[in-house]
């Protein structure tokens, strides 16, 4: 029987280390040439499979693939595209089978978050429901750190490191200006429903060097009076403070403070712009001078300050995905299992996709201080190992030396397909 080719694609918001997962996956597949043919990457995620827009990764050298480990964002392009159920759109699944058959694809690897896990789960069911043999393995990735079962998600550790460092540095800046100028700095970070990224800002304050930081979590209903009281308290004590606010902060009635009234491709409310809202509340309520900033793409693209443990875990997830598939596993996801905190040790586990897809992991209540504005020692113990260690990319002329692959297209064999 002829060996099968593999399909790999990246989905959702990219990260500083998603390419490290691609590197681990492609390098491992190349080590098993007796069992896996070529690795075809989908250009722009699952859309590449539906439109037969495939990339032949064998056209790139081992050196170029290795460089993916230290290159941020998605080397093959990503997408926000959620496939409907088989019953709702059978044509899409028939098209996938057409493409898979045409290119002898028997392995499907989808690198993404919760919605991507759902897509991977649906593809894994093609064998049972439509008679096409395919092994689908989800490769975890999300800066939001909200996938269930796994201890943490590749991509999060590096974002957490960036936000912790940025919060510390911005707090030093505002401290310098507080006497005659800015007294409050507001930093907006990602996090729709889960406050993991915002929590990382709390790492900037330590027992040895306390910093006046207020964190606004999606898990805690925003109370204007309590918030202003906390800011006022810190400004009176220190002369200044920094506010780290998650984009998903909601009022008591469940409405996002930053809801623009728009929806993204997954049907989620399109957020952004909560920092100026919070800053204005400070101005109107306390009359303090402020500045605000939005970390936005910078937080998830910052490979220059990536966490070493995050890079290692991202690579391991890609590597294990291939190994799981070769062992016959289908509809699963490699996970990170924490063995100990001091010293920090972890190992790779495995979770069934039907327990992962469409499930969000929120911040535990005991990770948030009773006043709702900070992180507990338990949260700090969880977060601290995830940001430790540096894994700097090579530099040339003062800039990181990132790779751009050739991304040579695989010749098409089928007609066009409209999505």
Describe the fold and architecture.
With 419 residues, the chain is α/β, with parallel strands linked by helices. The chain has two domains: 202 residues, 3-Layer(aba) Sandwich (Rossmann fold), CATH 3.40.50; 170 residues, Rossmann fold. 34% of the residues lie in helices and 17% in strands. The protein is built from 13 helices and 13 strands. It has a five-stranded mixed sheet with strand order 3-2-1-4-5, with helices on both faces. A four-stranded parallel sheet has the order 7-8-6-9, with helices on both faces. It has a two-stranded antiparallel ribbon with strand order 10-11. A hairpin with a 4-residue loop joins β10 and β11. The two termini are 33 Å apart.
Summarize the structure.
This protein is of the alpha/beta class and 419 residues long.
- Helix/strand structural class: alpha/beta
Order of helices and strands: EHEHEHHEHHEHEHEHEHEHHEEHEE
Query: How many helices in DSSP terms?
Result: 13
- Give a count of the beta strands, DSSP E runs of length 2 or more: 13
By CATH, the topology of the largest domain is Rossmann fold
CATH class of the largest domain: Alpha Beta
Gross morphology is: elongated
Roughly how many Å is the radius of gyration?
Answer: 22 Å
The major beta sheet can be summarized as:
5 strands, mixed
Q: Unreliable runs, pLDDT <50, ≥5 residues?
A: 262-266
Q: Provide the helix percentage.
A: 25-40%
Overall mean pLDDT: 94
**CATH architecture label of the largest domain:** 3-Layer(aba) Sandwich
- Please give the alpha-carbon distance between the first and last residues: 33 Å
Number of separate domains: 2
The order of strands across the largest sheet is 3-2-1-4-5
Beta-strand residue fraction: 15-25%
């Amino acid at each position: 029987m002829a060996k099968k080719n593999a399909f790999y694609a990246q989905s959702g918001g990219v990260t500083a280390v998603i390419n490290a997962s691609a590197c681990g996956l492609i390098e491992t597949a190349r080590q098993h040439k007796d069992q896996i043919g070529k690795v075809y990457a989908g250009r722009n995620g699952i859309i590449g499979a539906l439109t037969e827009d495939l990339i032949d990764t064998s056209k790139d050298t081992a050196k170029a693939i290795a460089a993916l480990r230290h290159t941020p964002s998605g080397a093959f392009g990503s997408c926000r595209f959620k496939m409907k159920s088989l019953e709702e759109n059978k044509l899409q699944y028939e098209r996938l089978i057409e493409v898979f058959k045409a290119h002898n694809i028997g392995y499907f690897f989808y690198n993404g978050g919760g919605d991507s896990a759902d897509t991977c789960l649906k593809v894994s069911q093609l064998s049972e429901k439509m008679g096409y043999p395919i092994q689908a393995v989800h490769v975890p990735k999300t800066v939001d750190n909200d996938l269930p079962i796994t201890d943490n998600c590749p991509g999060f550790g590096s974002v957490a490191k960036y936000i912790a460092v940025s919060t510390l540095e911005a707090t030093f800046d505002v401290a310098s200006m507080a006497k005659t100028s800015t007294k409050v700095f507001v930093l907006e970070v990602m996090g729709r429903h889960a406050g993991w990224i915002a929590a990382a800002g709390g790492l900037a304050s330590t027992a040895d060097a306390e910093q006046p930081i207020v964190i606004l979590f999606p898990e805690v209903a925003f109370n204007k009076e309590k918030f202003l009281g906390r800011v006022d308290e810190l400004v009176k004590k220190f002369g200044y403070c920094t506010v780290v606010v998650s984009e998903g902060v909601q009022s008591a009635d469940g409405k996002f403070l930053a809801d623009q009234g728009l929806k993204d491709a997954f049907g989620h409310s399109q957020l952004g712009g909560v920092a100026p809202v919070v800053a204005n509340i400070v101005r109107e309520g306390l009359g303090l001078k402020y500045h605000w900033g939005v970390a936005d793409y910078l937080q998830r693209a910052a490979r220059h300050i990536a966490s070493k443990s995050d890079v290692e875990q991202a690579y391991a997830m890609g590597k294990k995905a291939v190994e799981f598939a070769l062992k016959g596993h289908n509809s699963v996801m490699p996970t990170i299992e924490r063995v100990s905190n001091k010293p920090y040790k972890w190992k790779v586990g495995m979770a069934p996709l039907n327990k992962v897809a469409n499930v969000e992991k929120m911040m535990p209540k005991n990770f948030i201080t009773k006043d709702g504005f900070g992180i507990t020692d338990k949260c700090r113990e969880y977060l601290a190992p995830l940001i430790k260690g540096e894994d700097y990319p090579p530099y040339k002329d003062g800039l990181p030396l990132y790779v751009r692959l050739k991304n040579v297209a695989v010749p098409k064999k089928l007609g066009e397909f409209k999505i």
